[in-house]
Amino acid sequence: MKALRLIAGPRAREHLYQHGLRQQDINVMVGASGGPKWFSLYGLDQYLFADFFRQRQAPLHLIGSSAGAWRFACFAQRNPIAASQRFAQAYRDITFPAGANVDQVTAASRSILDTAIPSASEAQEILDNPTIKLNLIVARARKVTASRHRGLQALSLGLAAGANAVHRSTLGAFFERVLFHSASDKPPFYDINDLPTRRVALTQDNLHDAVMASGSIPLALNGVANIHGAGPGMYYDGGVTDYHFDIPFSAKGLVLYPHFYSTITPGWFDKALKWRRGSPANFDNVIILCPSPEWVASLPFGKIPDRKDFVQLDDKTRIQYWAETMKRSSELADELHDLVHGNELHQALAR
């Protein structure tokens, strides 16, 4: 059974056939929304930043939303492996009291972030990193969507979902994409404009709030208000606009995308729209690394973790299941190591 599946766009495939998989050829790395689904990628994350990118000298731009943004905030720290381990353990072991309300869920989530970025010192490491450049997406609520009244929030989200089903561009009437970007080096996707987009440099004054907002799922968590430098408003989960991302990431080099699925769902409201998938043009130079269906089927419960586990499993069972998935994810890392250093890359491309 193969644990890892490699999917490459036409330009990426041709490059891999000629040169193999080399860290110096990667220009951008992508991290999707998806909550605890990322536990299936934990081993890949550890390998990529402990080994694959360890000698990196040229800037590597990371772009993430929600869980992807939280993961990547760890990798831009001086000790990315320790930061990722702190984040993973805090997320895995979190529990909520029965009937927890939005305030309690928000407070618990912020405690996870405080573990991942425990002080201004780690935040400054992220901002000053000369190589690993953090960029993340947040959704700024517009008009009625910005209401703090839960009933109006639910109504506006329903309206946004209906409009989005007609055309993705209508999402801009309800949410504005906010690209929080590295202040020292503009990312190659700086000028994305398929949706109304605000661009804000990351600073010590907004980093923590921006990362928190990028994982603040509407109705499940409170939004983050008035993020410094971004203007007044209520800010929510970046997955609302960019769930798995469907943007032109970079015209140069390759894009590495460790992902939990083989398919791309552009925005949060597109999850129910099976016909809406990422544009092939945006994935021409993208390499997706994802778990194979056989590997997923071999996990406890035959699936990767998701947020439903919080309500469908008791805490002990859920934590054991998530821990087992994290442990087993090293199998993907072992296979990636073989693709990088062995002779199996062409076979993987042929599958």
Task: Give the topology.
Layout: E1 4-8, H1 10-19, E2 26-31, H2 42-52, E3 60-65, H3 67-75, H4 80-93, H5 102-116, H6 120-128, E4 132-141, H7 150-166, E5 175-181, E6 197-201, H8 207-214, E7 224-225, E8 234-237, E9 254-258, E10 286-291, H9 293-297, H10 309-312, H11 315-328, H12 330-341, H13 345-350
Parallel strand pairs: 2-3, 2-9, 3-4, 5-6, 9-10
Antiparallel strand pairs: 1-10, 4-5, 4-8, 7-8
Notable traits:
globular; 10-stranded mixed beta sheet; 10 strands; 351 residues; alpha/beta
Description:
The protein has 351 residues and is α/β, with parallel strands linked by helices. It has 13 helices and ten strands. The chain has helices at 10-19, 42-52, 67-75, 80-93, 102-116, 120-128, 150-166, 207-214, 293-297, 309-312, 315-328, 330-341, 345-350, and strands at 4-8, 26-31, 60-65, 132-141, 175-181, 197-201, 224-225, 234-237, 254-258, 286-291. Strands 1, 2, 3, 4, 5, 6, 7, 8, 9 and 10 form a ten-stranded mixed sheet that branches. α2 (42-52) links the parallel β2 (26-31) and β3 (60-65). The longest helix has 17 residues, at 150-166. The protein is globular, with a radius of gyration of 19 Å. The mean pLDDT is 95.
Cα-to-Cα separation, first versus last residue: 13 Å
Which geometry do the CA atoms define? globular
Radius of gyration, in angstroms, nearest whole number: 19 Å
Percentage of residues in strands: 15-25%
